[in-house]
Write a structure and sequence with these properties.
CATH superfamily of the largest domain: Zn peptidases
CATH class of the largest domain: Alpha Beta
Largest sheet: 6 strands, mixed
Shape: globular
Helix content: 25-40%
Distance between the termini: 34 Å
Strand order of the largest sheet: 1-2-6-3-7-17
Strand content: 25-35%
Number of strands: 18
CATH topology of the largest domain: Aminopeptidase
Radius of gyration: 23 Å
Amino acid sequence: MEQKNKAIIDTTLELVEIDSRNRPHGEDEISSYISDFLEKIKIDNAIISHEKDRKSLIAYYPGTESGKNLLMCGHLDTINLDSVSDSDNKIIAGIKGDKMFGLGTSDMKGGVAAMLYALKELVRINFKPKYDIFFAFTGDEEADKAGALHLLENELTNNTKLMIVGEPTNLNLGLGSKGQIWFEVKFKGKAAHGSTPEKGKSAVLMAMNFISQILEPEFFVKNEKFFPKSTVNVGFLNADGPFNVVPDTCVAGLDIRLSPPETVENVKKKIKDILSSTFRKNEYELKIVDSLDASFIQPESKTAKEIKNIIGQHVSGKRKIALSYATDGSVLNTYASVPVIILGPGIPEVIHNRDEYIPLDNIIHASMIYTDIMLNVAKII
C-alpha cells in the first residue's frame, strides 16, 4: 500500500478507536483530534459547543468568489452501543484482509477521513477554487442533530448551493433520502375489571385500531419511482398492566419514512383526520416528536451528471440511488432548501451494529472522488 493510502487508512483507524458514542461529551476527543489534523495543514477551524455538552467542528477553505459555497458534511458521533470498547475506552477495531472492523467504520468515520485527506490534497497542490468550500463535522447526528441545527441557526448555509453528506452509500450516488415523522399518540380509554371488558374501553385496542388504519396500503401517495415505498414502523406500544384490568391509557410511538411526492404536512393531516374521525377529542393526545421532508435532486440535473461522471472515473458499477434514512442534510433541505447529495464510503447494511465494517478501498476511492468534486466545484454548483 503506497504511503498516502496507508496514511488515510491509519487515520481512519485512529478515528474509529476514539470513543465518540452519542452521549454528553461524546465528541470532545474526536473534535480535538480533527482540529489538530487541520492545524497541521494550516486550515482555519473552530470547535463549536452545543447544549448538553456536545461539540461540532467547522472548517473553511476559501475560494476566489464568496457568493456561493459547497458544504462537505460528516458527523462525529456514532450510535451508542454497549460492549464495543476496551478498558481504555477505545472502540475495539482492527483490519482483517481488505476490511476495517469497528463501530463507526462505515457510519461514518471512513467518510470523515476521506474528506480530511481530500482537503489535505487541495492544500498540497495549493488549489484555488472558484467558490468557498466549507466543512462541517457535526455532533449529535444520531439523536437530536445539534450540529446541523447550529448550521441553520447561525446562517452558515445562506450561500450553500450544494451539501455533500459522507454517509455510507458504498460510493453509489445518493440523490435522495426519505423524509421522516416520529410521533406519539396517547390514547385514553376507560378502566374496568378484566372479567368484564365490555364495561370499559381498552386504550390498547384504540391504539391498535389507529395503527391498523395507518398501515392501510392506500394511506400514502404513490411514491416517485426513483424511491423505495414510504414505510411505517410501530416503535412501541406501552400500557401498564396488570392482566386483569382493562387498560385506560396506552401510548403508541410510530416512525414513518416518506418518499416523494408524499410530504410531512400531508401525512400529518391524514394522521389528524384518522384520529378526529375515529375518536372523541378527549380520547387522544398527539405529539409530533420530529419531522423532516424528503430530499431529492433530479438524476438528469447538471449536478448529478457531473458527480456521477467523477465517480465513474474512480470506481465502476455505481448507481444513482435514493436512501431510506434521514441525514444532517435532511435538516438543511427541509428548513433552508439546500440541495443534498449523499455520497460516502462504507456499507449501509452493516451500520448500527457490533459487526460494522468498511472496505479499505472504499475509503481511498472516496478521498479521490471528494478531491475531484472540490477541484471541479465551479462546474458542479
